[in-house]
Amino acid sequence: MKEMTLREVCESANVSRRAVQGYEKAGLVSASGKNTYGYLLYDTDSQERIKRIKLYQDLGLKIKEVKEIIDAPNPVLKKILEERIVKMEEEKERIDDLVDKVKQLIATLS
To answer: Which of 26, 48, 61, 108 is most buried (most C-beta within 10 Å)?
Structure first.
């Protein structure tokens, strides 16, 4: 991968400009430089880091939590992610039950 502008990174990682700026403010990522037009550039490592931060946020982690795990050793990260999977599976089960209840209610309304 080559260096990308902020706009390109946002499109590639499906994140907003404000999100990347928030990551920078939190000290999670930084631009690798600027191009001749003054646009911020992000190297391959920064691009991958932004994608990983986005994944962690999609998993429901807050920026503070991401800061704590982004550079954690693999065994620590693995444990945290396994715990998150358990929580997500519990939430999925709860939502599935709720959907079933609502479907049953709808059936009585017909």
So the answer is: 61
